[in-house]
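Input:
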Amino acid sequence: MSKKWFTFLLVALMAMLLVACGGGTTETTAEPTADAGEVAEPTEEMAAEPTEEMAEEPTEEAAAPSGDMIELQLMGWSSSDAENARLQEMVDTYNANNPGVNVTLSQVPDYDTVLQTAMAGGEPPDVFYIDSFRLPDYVAADSLMPIGDQMDDPDDFFPSLRQAFTINDTFWCPPKDFSTLALQYNKDMFDAAGLEYPTPDWTWDDLRAAAETLTDEEAGVYGLVLPADMARWIAFLYQAGGTVANDDFSAMTLDSPEALEATDFYVNLVLDGFAAQPSDLDSGWPGEAFGKGTAAMALEGNWIVPFLQDQFPDLNWGVTEMPAGPGGDATMAFTVCYGVAADAPNPEESIALANWLTGAEGMAQWTDLGLAMPTRASLSDAWLEQFPDLEPFLAGADYARPWQFRPGFNDVMNAFNSGLQQAFTGTYTTDQVLSDTQEAGTEVLGNQ
Amino acid sequence: MAAASGIKGEDRERAIAGWLFMSPTMLIFGVFIIVPIFFAIYFSLTDWNGISPPGEAQFIGLENYRTVLAGGGVRQADFFKALKNTTYFALGVVPAQTIISLLLAVIVNQAWLRFKGFFRTTYYFPSITSSIAISLMFLFFYQRSGLINQVLSAVSFGNWEPLAWMADPRGLIHIILEAVGVTIRTAPEFVRSEVLGLTIWDWISGPSVALMAIMFMNTWTTIGTMMVIFLAALQSVPGYVYEAAQLDGASAMRQFRSITLPLLRPTLFFVITLGLIGTYQVFDQVYVMSSGGPAKTTLTVAYLVYQNGFANSNMGMAAAIAILLFIIIFTLTMIQRRITGSEGDL
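Output:
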């Protein structure tokens, strides 16, 4: 008796497994785009919803929903609690004002891996974050729909941010917010050294001189904290008047005298002992060293603000624009956009959602937190009124360069960072750093 | 006749039942292990970017393998750099973990030892603790003013120069050479010639300070598991063998060499194999602690696979490197099997 039961159970189990596997494959391969959104939903919901039957019917059903809810999935990475909660509030607002559309928000850790597998699996979320640095990879894979120009008043976005999401003259996706690099300084340490606070018209010489004065190696205090990171050094490259590659990315241009000048300036700050890496100051990143007071200046973006307020509320600090180099002013803009997949099942609704999120209403609600800045010029005055102290970050938008290159540029960044780390320990010359990077970049550009 | 066929029928029934019992596992094994392996082999022959649906990938033959093994560019250099790092990692960790865990197992197996349970639990504990949690904790220990530097400073009466362990790309052998006055500038010319994308000077760097930090932690977390395996083997050695040896006047050392070690041979093979596989696949600790830095000196082969697949959008290359890693591990295991000579036992 019991034996029979066992056999029955096993057979049933196998049948279930087979059905589950078989079902999965047919859905992903044979199914037209119409119902892909629903497929991504958890199975319990699928069973409960009547929409499942729609798969049997012709596709017009999905295109012209008569009273049926359109399900949209908005995916982003999980960040601070405040940001996660605010985005959920925004989604709730949107759902309340848009009957017929139901947006579900998923905020995932290890975002790149999740998004990439969802796309490769043919079931991408409807609207999702894309970092400007990763954009070229997604565009090269033909997985995005160009929606930038379908936003309301696309010219209202800051040109530097449009540029960050523009590849081959196509404005791919609307920027959700942005941060720029600026110079943070410890007021108490400047006072103690009898130095004037930095101003927006500081030059490299001023930065170096101040760093020298503020350094007290005996006490383990440095004028400046500098990471071995291309994402910081590159601001100096642009300030020196150099570039990473020529305009159409047909050749790398890191063999220029400007690139060498920028790299020498950056590396020498460390080698001469006026600046230290975060790891030498017992810190995981520059913001931490600055907060601890072991570095008098740091060059970070808006993200340092909530960190310092939260972890080092007593720190007396200020912020000003980046110093100018021989080639003029430059800073970096780090930004993320809302992308829509090339074969999105509900393109109209997805674009409408992206439009609302980056429009006057959604963006104001988002940037209200003071963490990142609105990407629309028309909203910047209202934001400045709210956060006057953060003006230097916003001022950078006028001369910021995008953090976006070509597919596979991660290799170039790794090559550079690796070289810079060795230059900081004195085992590599700045020439070697640049020639290694130039070589890696030439290879990456050549593969396209 | 009837009876015989009856037994046969029963056998068959049993066989069917056996297969049925196995089928869930086999199915899962097939779907999640076997099929992906074939997919990986296939993708290693394509230029799949890992983003667009895999069906769109172009078949490019052995191009990925050529780029990695003989391409002459940054990909080749990265692969051999990773292979070099991983090999130094294995050369340090495998002997250390094997010897220490064997020692610990012999100690906690002693009849006279008190609080055995306590010691066994303590030694085993790191192995069952989350590797991510341990890695994060060690990140603090390895800071310039962290615990490790403080301890080293205390035992050397302040003569220890504190290191920022995880940010130090200098190789061990380079450090030693520098101490005797040999640097890249004073070394003979031939060390600057390139072999497989790296200069000879790079090849002989030894593990970097950062990599050694991870090696130390990795050894600490793995000895527990190895100790338990040795302990199980030690306990299956009958006590009368030792008693007989004692009667013959064998010293403790002699007993260890002539009884314990030979009887532990299959286990030794098993532990070294596990160690080799584990070290050549090291990923999580690198992912958490260093992301391959500083200066790519903690870049391991497994991390390179991840980087190519998910940061460089080059899943085809990632698959090719994964297959190469498999071939390397397989070859090493075969060689090691020949050396330990335990064909019959496993």
